Structures are given as C-alpha cells and as structure tokens.
C-alpha cells in the first residue's frame, strides 16, 4: 500500500546518534516505489527555543547534508524547509480556530518545555502541536514516524482532523504512526537529546571520541560491583545494552551480549568496547559519505528549493480546499 510519509527534525543543532538510529534510518527505508516521502527541517518550530537566526540557518544546511549522507535521495524524497511553505502557517491559523487552549496546556511536551525554559514561555510553545498538525495534515500524510515523546502531538493532529471533518465535511486523512517506536538512550540513560550535549553522541564525532565518551559516561548495571558478578542488561543497564539491541547484528535474535552479561562472561568495559565497535560499522559509511558533500552548500540549497516547490504544490491544494470550506 502506498503511503505519504512525513517527518521533520528541528534545526536546533546537528543530528546525533539518537536521530540517526531512531528516525533517519527509517526515513531511508520508506523510500520505496509508490511512497511519497516528505522530510523537512522544522525551522519554524526551532524559533520557540532558539534566538540565533545564523545558527538556525547553519543547522538547516548541515541537517540536510546529514540526511543525504544517511541515504535520503532527493530524487526519491522531498526534502524541504518548513518555513519555505507559507501555507503551513496559514493552515495552522485555521486549525487553531477549532482547538481548545486547555487541551494544549495539558500536552506533556508543553509541560516539559516550560520546565526547561521557564523564562521563555512563549505562545509558540503552546501552539507548537497545532503547527505540527498543519505540517502533517497539509500534505495529507498517511504515516508519521515519530519518537514516543511526539505521540501526543500526532494524536492532537488526528483529533483536529476529526473535528474539522465533522464540522466542514471530509477533508483530512487521519495519519497513522509506526507500531514500534525506537527510543535511543543517551549516555545518562535518558532519551538522547539534541538539546542536551552531555548525554548525546554527535554524528560528527570520531570513533575514538565516541569510545571515550561511552567508557567515561555510559551507564551500565550500577548493582554489578565486580567483574564476576552477573549483570542485568534488560532492567539495570540504562545506556549501553539498549543501543546494542539497535546496532549489534543478531543481538535481538540470539542475545549473545545479554546472555554473557547475565552469566558474568563479559564485563561492562568490554561490553562498551564491543558496542562502540558496532556503532563504528554503522557510522563510518555515513561519515565517509558526509565528507563527500561537506562543501556542497549550493547543492543543498538547490535540494531545499526544489523540495520546497514540490511540497508546496501538495500543501497548496489542501489549504485551498480548507479556505473554500470555512468560507
């Protein structure tokens, strides 16, 4: 079945390992005949917490390079900047007219943002999910691969689609999410985040630097005091074993690392070394491809320009339909 696949990443910094394993690898997999793949850089969303225009512009270009180095093909995927489609903001305004403020205030991501930015609780933070709904509903996306933290926002988009359809007639498709979502832990065991440099592994880091960071900061089983003590990789190894499950070939099927830990046949230091060896197998091809396009800023701008035209052509039709229905 053909899908309109849509997802975006904020332009707050360069991509890190969590983005790569949790999102971008899946983006590439969706590049199948029949699918329309739309991947954007959410530079408007970035304005809620960032104040440097130069930093946002720079990150926009660098993230697109990361996309392309990871395997996104501009001939197969529409890659664009959110801000290049003015109709997204227009649709956000229309959707806001049928969205209750109280519901937005209860969304977990809003509560989290105001905790992190108590001195900058702006309107953009509150309406963030409505803008995200416009991103999704504008091109009538059928599949939205997101992390678990963004599930409430996609649910709100589905709710807005239902409200609009019930009031004005069938217009929007209710987007679906992936049934299995990947959570990539950071070095401290919490979700790896671009906004928390201390817990993240940046894609631009060399393998020796990644190794040093895992050896120094990676959280394993804190109850395992001696090398001869059996460990618990499933419940107590917070930041190392979960990444093994994502990058170590065959681990999900045969559980070689897990069983060795449970039997005290492998120590935490050795486990970290094996993890970084397997991360290297995934990252080194990406890093080599990234070198090939490091200076191709004009090419990236052309990709964004062409992607923006394609995306806008789809979204304009939806917004035109919305305008006609709301009067």
Automatic annotation (TrEMBL):
Query: One GO MF term, please?
Result: tryptophan-tRNA ligase activity
One of the GO BP terms on file: tryptophanyl-tRNA aminoacylation
Ranges that cross the membrane? none
Q: Which domain of life is it from?
A: Bacteria
Q: Which InterPro entries match?
A: aa-tRNA-synth_Ic, Rossmann-like_a/b/a_fold, Trp-tRNA-ligase, Trp-tRNA_synthetase
Which key words tag this protein in UniProt?
Aminoacyl-tRNA synthetase, ATP-binding, Ligase, Nucleotide-binding, Protein biosynthesis
Question: Mind telling me which GO cellular component terms the entry cites?
Answer: cytosol
> In the record, which residues are listed under signal peptide?
none
Major enzyme class: ligase
EC number assigned by the record: 6.1.1.2
Q: Does the keyword DNA-binding apply?
A: no
| Matching Gene3D superfamilies | HUPs, Tyrosyl-Transfer RNA Synthetase
Spell out the Pfam families in the cross-references. tRNA-synt_1b
Family note: Belongs to the class-I aminoacyl-tRNA synthetase family.
Supply the NCBIfam families for this chain.
trpS
Could you identify this protein by its name?
Tryptophan--tRNA ligase
């Amino acid at each position: 079945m053909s899908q309109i696949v849509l997802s975006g990443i904020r332009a707050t910094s360069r991509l890190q390992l969590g983005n790569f394993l949790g999102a971008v690898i899946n983006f590439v997999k969706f590049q199948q005949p029949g699918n329309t793949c739309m991947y954007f850089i959410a530079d408007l969303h970035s304005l809620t917490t960032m104040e440097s225009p130069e930093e946002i512009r720079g990150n926009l270009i660098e993230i697109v390079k990361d996309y392309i180095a990871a395997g996104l093909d501009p001939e197969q995927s529409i890659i664009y900047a959110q801000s290049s489609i003015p109709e997204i903001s227009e649709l956000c305004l229309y959707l806001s007219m049928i969205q209750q403020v109280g519901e937005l205030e209860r969304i977990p991501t809003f509560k989290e943002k105001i905790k992190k930015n108590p001195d900058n609780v702006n309107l953009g933070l509150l309406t963030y999910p409505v803008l995200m709904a416009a991103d999704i509903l504008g091109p009538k996306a059928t599949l939205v691969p997101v992390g678990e933290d963004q599930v409430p926002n996609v649910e709100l988009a589905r709710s807005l689609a239902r409200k609009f359809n019930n009031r004005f007639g069938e217009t929007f498709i209710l987007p679906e999410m992936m049934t299995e979502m990947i959570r990539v832990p950071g070095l401290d065991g919490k979700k790896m985040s671009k906004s928390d440099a201390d817990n993240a592994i940046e894609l631009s880091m060399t393998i020796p630097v990644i190794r040093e960071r895992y050896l120094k900061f990676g959280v394993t089983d804190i109850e395992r005091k001696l090398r001869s003590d059996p460990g618990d990789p499933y419940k107590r190894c917070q930041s190392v074993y979960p990444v093994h499950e994502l990058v170590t070939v065959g681990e999900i099927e045969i559980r070689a690392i897990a069983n060795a830990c449970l039997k005290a046949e492998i120590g935490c230091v050795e486990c970290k070394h094996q993890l970084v060896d397997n991360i290297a197998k995934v990252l080194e091809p990406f890093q080599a491809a990234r070198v090939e396009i490091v200076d191709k800023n004009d090419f990236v701008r052309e990709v964004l320009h062409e992607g923006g035209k394609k995306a806008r052509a789809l979204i304009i039709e939806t917004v035109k339909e919305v305008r006609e229905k709301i009067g």
